[in-house]
Amino acid sequence: MALTERNEANREPQGKDGWPPFAAIKIVMSLLEIRNLQIDFGRGPNALRAVDGVSLSLEPGKTLCLVGESGSGKSVTALSIARLMASPPAVYAGGEILLEGHDVLKMKAAPLRNIRGGVVSYVFQEPGASLNPVYRIGSQIKEALQLHRPEAATDAEVVRLLKLVGIPAPELRIRNYPHELSGGMQQRVMLGMALAPHPKLLVADEPTTALDVTIQAQIIELLGELQRQFGMAILLITHNLGLVGDVADEVAVMYAGQIVETAPARELLKRPLHPYTQALLHSVPSLDTEVDRLATIPGAVPRLGGFPGGCRFHPRCPRAQPECTQLAPALIEVEPRRWVRCPWWNPSAWNA
Amino acid sequence: MILRLSQRLLWSFFTLLGTAFLTFFLLNAVPGDVARVIAGSKASPEVIREIHAKYHLDDSLWRRFGLYLGQLARGDLGHSYVTDQPVAEAILTRLPTTTALAALAGVMWMVIAVPLGALTARFRDSWFDRTTLVAATLSLSLPAFWLARMMQYWLAYKLGWFPIGFFRHFGDLLLPAASLALLSVGYYARLIHTNMVEVLDRPYVRAARAKGASETRVLFKHALRNALIPVITILGMDVAGMLGGVLFTENVFALPGIGTLAVQSVFNLDPPMIMGTVLFSATLVVGANWVVDLTYGWIDPRIKATH
What we know:
The complex is a heterodimer. Chain A is α/β, with parallel strands linked by helices. In chain A, helix 6 runs parallel beside helix 9 (183-195) and helix 7 (155-164) packs across helix 9 (183-195). Chain A has helices at 6-11, 23-29, 74-80, 109-118, 127-130, 137-148, 155-164, 170-173, 183-195, 213-230, 241-247, 265-270, 275-282, 347-351; strands at 32-41, 48-58, 63-67, 90-99, 102-103, 120-123, 201-205, 233-238, 250-255, 258-264, 332-335, 338-340. By secondary structure, chain B is an all-alpha fold. Classes of the chains: A alpha/beta, B mainly alpha. The interface between A and B is medium-sized, with 30 and 21 residues.
């Protein structure tokens, strides 16, 4: 098998003309469809590409996990769904982000505000820093209601939402300031605020990273529960592959600004195809086996602007071949719904 | 809270006592005989002696300070040595002018500095931000008396838009108030700008945008209040400096306010009047810091928790 760049053009067309006719059907089905998204930091010759040709799709009510180490571009991708990456410094250099068929990147300010919160809501990594310290939590949730469901902007609705996200004595809590709550409670408030306008998509950007391990499990469980009640889709950004099995329908693994593998969650956990995914899974500690040292991936994530030539993972890849240093592999569909950015994905064929 | 308030009260008392002490002894370090000032250079020795006796001028400084404090405790600021007018009355009749000037300048300051600081932070590094930066730097390096004189010369004398050297009604305060406000607008616009830039990078600002809040709402509801917290501290410390600006402005524009009264009393070497105006200003500064302290708790709920 030879490394080619031929597939890149076929699978990830740059313009609308390149799309096969059946793509039109998919637009209707998908709640979120990201096509060949490119995001730079800075302009001109010094521009650094943080997100390089990412394509994702998410159907209503489903959960997609976006997995990768810090600096892989997963948060930037997630934030750009509601165009929340400040521009400048970020530049939306190419591609489309279709939310219910409308391109977010081309939207004017007013419809964009309706989308933010109304269609796609966010829960961020640090709940303490994401709540405004000078306003009571009740009024912050009520603001979300006023913006998108003005008829429901009442104390009663705020209390109902707080109860829904598992806050005890919500009638008393609405008068609290964020600093008076614990981290777990703050994240529940964020969730309540995100759900208040009944969004169709919840983007959770590492929602549990800043929390205690025991609280983490509670929040993830709550996410699943709320998804069943509200029927919304979830895009969960995480660097923790351990979460994937519990919640995700589909998984996309990112490395150095690119997607390296996408697959249904079960398949991916059972049989990861990309060497990076394999290494990631290998470094999740298991409770069943005893080890002296936890497995790690040698080397570090390359810095933005310092991506190696050829395959971006090759310096850390146990399976790297001489060709890998030269040619950038394309994302290829190796099985239905399974895409891998590695020509050596099939070890048996390769050994033969 | 009560403990804190009483602590503050005690501190305020000592601050004012210290001010009175310093002013009193500094005043008496000024060479020259007050009696000569009162009676004129040609007064006979008998008159001088009489005046000395009337105002206890031959007593020790400590005794005279004690007498003055006793008088203060009875709520009496004394009489002017020069005009014999009660000091309290002199201050009170001039208070409305000064208050109006300060209030008008305050409103102008707020209307210019706050939006300018907020908007330059939102559009940082734009031509608007750069122009404002230059203008602000200019404004904060201008000396008060120079700016006031220039405005008076060009706008009042050359263009004839404002009266010169006299004062009829509130509208005549516009020019003095503008020159007073301009002095601090530059500094505060940049201070608010700096705090705003920092606050705009905070996650809760991004969270407010993610909610669907408009840019105006994000800027003026979510960010501004947080950005003003440190500004209020500086404002409290700056009240004394602003009083200095009032003093200059009133004198340049010949406004019948407390600033002109203070300067006049110094030229007249009129100790009770000097003491009165200084103590009045000190009370203002102490009071302003009380207000700042209270505002603090209101604007930032986290501070209440630590009290």
